[in-house]
Amino acid sequence: GPLRDLVHACDAPLVEAQLWPGDSLIAYCGRFLSQCHGDVAAALRGVERDLEWRKWKGPKDIVARGDDLARILGLSAGDVKRCLPLWVQGGDAAGRPFVVWQLGRSDLGRLFAKTTRPRVEWYMALHGEVVARACGAAKAEAWSLLLDLRGLGWRHACCRHLVPWLADVYDRERHHNPE
C-alpha cells in the first residue's frame, strides 16, 4: 500500500539516523503520509524537506549533547521561563509526554525585544526535539499539549510579532512534526 511505497521511496538509513530511540521508520513515514492524506509523492516531498532541514540544522545532535537551549535565544533560563513558559510536565494517562505552554503568560514583547524571531523559531524547533526524544523513549507517536490561553489579551495582540510568529510555528509543526 501507500505506506510501503513511501518507506521504500525514502532514504531509510538517513531517516533512521534522525529518529529518537523508540520511534520507527514506519511511524515516521506514517505521520507524513497521514498529513498528506495518503498522497505518497507529497509525503515523500515532506520527508525530504524534513531530512534536508535536519541535515542543515542538526537538531538531534544539539539536544543529544544537552546544550543549553536558553543560550540559543541569547537569554538566561529565567528570562526564557518568564517570556516563553513552555515545558514538558511529565506523562499523560497514556504515557505520552505532556507539554504545557502558557501562551497567556508569555511576554512576547519582552522576548522579541531581547532576541530575534529566527532564534525563537530555532528554540521552538529544538524544544520540539526534546519532546520527540521523550516520545521516542516512551514508544509513543504523539504527545499531549495543554495550550493555556488564560491571560491572553490585548497586550499579546499588540505585539507585532505574534501573528507572523504563530504562523511560522504552525508551518514548522506542519512540516516537521506532522500529526
What's a quick, concise take on this entry?
The chain has 179 residues and is mainly alpha-helical.
Structural write-up:
This protein has helices at 2-9, 12-18, 25-35, 40-57, 59-65, 69-73, 77-83, 108-114, 117-137, 154-157, 162-176; strands at residues 86-91, 97-101, 144-147. By secondary structure, it is mainly alpha-helical. It has a 3-stranded mixed sheet with strand order 1-2-3, covered by helices on one side. α1 (2-9) crosses α3, α3 crosses α4 (40-57) and α5 crosses α9. The longest helix is centred in the last third of the chain and has 21 residues, at 117-137. The two termini are 20 Å apart.
Sheet/helix structural class? mainly alpha
Give the radius of gyration: 17 Å
Low-pLDDT residue spans: none
Helix content: 55-70%
β-strand number: 3
Biggest β-sheet description: 3 strands, mixed
Gap from first CA to last CA = 20 Å
The global form is globular
User: What is the topology, as strand order, of the major beta sheet?
Assistant: 1-2-3
Helical stretch tally: 11
How much strand?
5-15%
Mean pLDDT value:
81
The SSE order reads: HHHHHHHEEHHEHH
